[in-house]
Amino acid sequence: MTTEKKLLRVEEAAALLGIGRTRAYEQIKLGRLRSVKIGTSRLVPTTALDEFVSLLLEESRHDQAA
């Protein structure tokens, strides 16, 4: 079993994505960045980071084609 974290605090996820905490919460609210709630904590699965970046890349490709 790996000791690598599977869930990150929103602040940690935001730092890894290079965005601010407020922007991360905004993306969660919009449904663009997946998260889970455990008790009172909002956590972001590490897999959601790659999904979010892929979404941004796809949108960028779409915008360039338009």
Describe, in plain words, how this protein is organized in 3D.
By secondary structure, the chain is an alpha+beta fold. It has one domain. 56% of the residues lie in helices and 17% in strands. The chain contains 3 helices and 3 strands. It has helices spanning 10-17, 21-29, 46-65, and strands at 7-9, 36-38, 41-45. Strands 1-3-2 form a 3-stranded antiparallel beta sheet. A hairpin with a 2-residue loop joins strand 2 and strand 3. The protein starts with 6 loop residues before the first strand and ends with a helix. The mean pLDDT is 95.
Mean pLDDT: 95
Enumerate the strands of the largest sheet in spatial order, edge to edge or round the barrel: 1-3-2
Count of distinct strands: 3
User: Low-confidence segments, ≥5 residues, pLDDT <50?
Assistant: none
Major sheet: 3 strands, antiparallel
As a whole number of angstroms, the C-alpha radius of gyration is 13 Å
The percent range for helix content is 55-70%
From the N-terminal CA to the C-terminal CA, the straight-line distance is 46 Å
Strand percentage lies at 15-25%
Q: Write down the domain tally.
A: 1
Brief write-up:
With 66 residues, this protein is α+β, with helices and mostly antiparallel strands. It has three helices and three strands. The protein has one domain.
